[in-house]
């Protein structure tokens, strides 16, 4: 009998590629990665062929689903080659959403609740008030449950599926788990607002998930934990999740204090309390899931120590910078809790108007202490005044409509100015290809101009920001820069992008902000050119008109939502939290661009410092906006300026926002008008301020009964009558509702005063008063409620 003999060369090659039973783990991983890369390229090809108008939320869901399916398909292919199933890689279909998944959800939601409770005890977190009502509660709860189930499936199977199983067969489970956890932590580094503590905690969670996988034999418990923890952060408590803040949260929670304790922009995952929580969870899960506690405590202490050594070594340079006394993080001012801010919006003053070209307003301060305002509406004019609300004097043209065919052929609007002595830098909004009657058709871009004589003459340096789209019939296209923030030696420009209604961010060095120097923020990096580059949109609801609040170092943005001007704040300039109560509220559906119309129009709001006119603001603000009265056309626009006083408390305040209720008197018409809005002159004669009546809330109190008051008007021949009445009463008495004036308490509260409805038989008019005798101007008709004294 003859025995076959293998050549030595063949034997060596076999040992290089094969073990006793199959390919070595390293080669199997390489094949798996090759399949994954191929499928990713194919998915990118598909995504690029989605319709051009696809919004960011749809793209996010498509990418999440495709990413999960990529790893499932690649694992299935490898399973066919290795004669294994997806269950061997941690995803058994027969246990899908069974008891272990729900045990994980209870553990995850309990973990985030316990963490936030500990942060509340440490006085760095406040649970806040309920932000959603009615059907919105179930709607957003369901949406986020589905979204985070998908996110958990993708992230868990990608980090702890086939790759962990295969690597474990080569180097052992716990060394493989440490590498998997380190990868999982590092994969979060591109998140907006993330820091090194957040990365370490993400890695430690990955190690905890490996422990649950090790004991249960599959990923369903880690998936349930992951889903519920994220759901609790984003939806239920409304806190940042790995630096991401999303709309539609149940509670308006806020955090304050040092970032290492509160989590800062990262959210609870960036707190050292989260680190302690994960260690406690590790001990609890070890005791819960294992019988021989002492043995397994010793066994599972080793991977934690190994992980910390690996991760700290990798992040050593970042840790050193974070502890340096010269680091920017150490210089940041403490961020107040969102509910600790108290705001009082003062009297609405008509600064200029009426006129057809009043839109955007910005200002600088002159050497003599006076102000030079820039008022834009197709053309831009310079106007000097003693105060920011004193803009009624002569105007001087500084930017005109450009030549036909040019990028500014439809107009040039100064949107923002930055002053340094005589030198003023302007961000100029340009429009071309305009046909406003065709659904507002126009194409927008931003150019840079510099003046060396306080803004009277300018040198145009050309465009610095343009969009990815082109002029399109019947559409508004392009991007327009509205707000610019100076931080850390850079200009940060916030621009409105019209194709999806999102705000985007670009930056350039203060030393050289000209064309070609701007880079847009895209998918975690500043690597897209300002001219024609793409950008990642900020969350919905974040406006593009902002200021830097010097008191706290936060960036503030103004938005418009549900009939009011909203205020949003951010420590990092990327993730924003909305103040529950708007700065101003006129009522849903009570603002319209269709002119003339029964509703008013409020647009182009901007925050300026009351003392300097700049967008680096103290605690004394000015809120300026364009205003068109009900039943008036766009030819009668006004510039309205309102003082705003702000204070910050060490604990939450309620209510946070109040807007001044004033009573005006028109002797010619014998009409008294009690309103929270401006009363422009020239409308049936001149109204004079007669009394200030306290402040109305801009939102109903969620804990105590309140009454919504409406500002209404009736005109019968030459007789004009204004009345302030509870919602629903005006129309039943033949009055036209102009706006929601605000909210009052139904019963006395600390710091409130009674507000009465009064009438004058002789003058046939109605008015409000804070005196029971109606200030001897008429007779009392009833109690409207209780407004804020101050």
Largest sheet: 9 strands, mixed
Morphology call: globular
Class per helix and strand makeup: alpha+beta
User: From the alpha-carbon coordinates, what is the Rg to the nearest angstrom?
Assistant: 31 Å
Q: Strand share of the residues?
A: 25-35%
* Fraction in helix: 25-40%
Poorly predicted regions are 1-5, 292-302, 304-332
> What is the number of strand segments?
35
Kindly report the average pLDDT value: 85
CA(first)-CA(last) distance: 108 Å
Helical segment count: 15
Task: Describe the fold and architecture.
This protein is α+β, with helices and mostly antiparallel strands. Helix content is 29%, strand content 32%. The chain is built from 15 helices and 35 strands. Strands 9, 10, 11, 12, 13, 14, 15, 16 and 17 form a nine-stranded mixed β-sheet that branches. A hairpin with a 2-residue loop joins strand 30 (706-716) and strand 31 (719-726). It is globular. The protein starts with 7 loop residues before the first helix and ends with a strand. Mean pLDDT is 85; it is low at 1-5, 292-302 and 304-332.
Write the topology of this structure.
Layout: H1 8-17, H2 25-47, H3 56-82, H4 99-121, E1 125-126, H5 135-160, H6 162-171, H7 173-186, H8 196-216, H9 220-236, E2 254-255, H10 259-262, H11 272-289, H12 293-314, H13 316-323, H14 328-331, E3 341-345, E4 349-355, E5 360-365, E6 371-377, E7 379-385, E8 395-399, E9 411-420, E10 423-435, E11 441-451, E12 459-465, E13 476-487, E14 490-497, E15 502-509, E16 519-522, E17 525-529, E18 545-549, E19 554-561, E20 564-570, E21 577-578, E22 584-585, E23 601-609, E24 616-617, E25 620-628, E26 637-648, E27 657-666, E28 671-675, E29 688-697, E30 706-716, E31 719-726, H15 729-732, E32 736-745, E33 752-760, E34 765-769, E35 779-788
Parallel strand pairs: 3-27, 11-13, 18-24
Antiparallel strand pairs: 1-2, 3-26, 4-26, 5-6, 6-7, 7-8, 9-10, 10-11, 11-12, 13-14, 14-15, 15-16, 16-17, 18-19, 19-20, 20-21, 20-22, 23-25, 25-26, 27-28, 27-29, 30-31, 30-32, 33-34, 33-35
